[in-house]
Amino acid sequence: MRVAMIGTGYVGLVSGACFADFGHVVTCVDKDASKIEKLEAGVMPIYEPGLDSLVEKNVKEERLFFTTEARDAIRNADAVFIAVGTPSRRGDGHADLSYVYAAAEEIAELMDGFTVVVTKSTVPVGTGDEVEEIIRKKRPDGDFAVVSNPEFLREGAAIKDFKIPDRVVVGTDDERAREVMTELYRPLFLNETPILFTARRTSELIKYAANAFLAVKITFINEMADLCEKVGANVQEVSRGIGLDGRIGKKFLNAGPGYGGSCFPKDTLALTKTANDYNSPVRIVDTVVEVNAARKKAMADKVIAAMGGDVKGKTIGVLGLAFKQNTDDMRDAPSLDIIPALQAAGAKIRAFDPEAMEEASHLLSDIEFAKNAYDAVEQADAMVIVTEWDQFRALDLDRIKAALNSNIVVDLRNIYSPEDMAGRGFQYTSIGRPLV
Ligand code: NAD
């Protein structure tokens, strides 16, 4: 199959490279010329484990191409994927669909022969209808079908998630489109991946419902963590105690500083907007949005309290800036709430992140970036772990202790044990676990 991928970001690039690796011929298109230049030079514009070698292999074997020029890619494609961004619209929180609609206009102009137009971007219910109308208006006699195929990959594990997904969801009632989509994903039959065919609107809603459910789960355990702190219980044991129940499940029950990233914050918000538009509010999601936003802000107060209530003139060594490990993505990262609040309280920040410092430098000001974790805490008045990178999980704690000006450690990811840290002489604060 010949595939055109419009938008070469986290989703478009990973999906494009994986489809190419399945044996399809894929052209990834992006308006951002610097991204395409980098890719053509073999440099990844994002950090995603394993992506560089996957791209290199498929470029070499002539199944994966990059361009800023959509014309040939769309004209020759059996399927054109729209994988552009759908950020929150400024002011009202609805998904901004301008990039999706612009891509639809472009596809309408250039498509040739039967073309399956696939919305891979996360889009509100009814967007497929709108995309169809845009294309139909421009090409009244065009031969095409618009399909919803939401993406569930997680940054940091994106290749595995794409190649061995829990499920593939395809929303269409067009038989020819169904055949094309089946052929595209046929290599997954080997792993017996379920392909769920639904109506287009159902498929669009599945993506939001999935993300909202996961956000509810995280927020639930975060609130349990707060309660644990008050009543002297341990949230990790609560998680395990409930997660072993098959109806609940173990995943997404790690308490932390609140969810961030490029999807949950904007998708939960967009779902509440859609629900309100249809006069069918999703109150549980409304609450989750509110609770999570407040939580991210409250994390700075937790750090300040751990440091005795005053951080004026103090230096804080921050480990981790990305919204989670194994990515350089800073979109809506908790660090973007925590660090400015600490700075506003008078603290100086020295931070280290293995991959996200370049991106963070555009979003945070007056930070000193460190060479590594030890450098970040050198002569600092506290160490604060914000992102759970593997390399922070087994730090040389004697070296940390010697580097720090104090013995204060705030671990917002619960990657160390309170008993162990207390035993080593740290004044250790974590999330939802009793102080020792
Ligand atoms: P991104 O911002 O990393 O990438 C989007 C890319 O599209 C950018 O490079 C931009 O230059 C390009 N673009 C925009 N308009 C274009 C056009 N008309 N022609 C060509 N290129 C164009 O975004 P992302 O994180 O890959 O997300 C894309 C979509 O996938 C969003 O709807 C998102 O919600 C969804 N999604 C993201 C993830 C994730 O983990 N990032 C997971 C599942 C779903």
UniProtKB/TrEMBL annotation:
Active site per the UniProt annotation: 263
Single GO term (MF): UDP-glucose 6-dehydrogenase activity
GO BP terms in the entry: polysaccharide biosynthetic process; UDP-glucuronate biosynthetic process
Keywords: NAD, Oxidoreductase
Signal sequence coordinates: none
Pathway participation: Nucleotide-sugar biosynthesis; UDP-alpha-D-glucuronate biosynthesis; UDP-alpha-D-glucuronate from UDP-alpha-D-glucose: step 1/1
Entry keyword annotation includes NAD: yes
Residues that coordinate or bind NAD(+): 30, 35, 86, 122, 155, 266, 331
Similarity field: Belongs to the UDP-glucose/GDP-mannose dehydrogenase family.
UniProt protein name: UDP-glucose 6-dehydrogenase
Lineage per the UniProt record: Bacteria, Pseudomonadati, Pseudomonadota, Alphaproteobacteria, Hyphomonadales
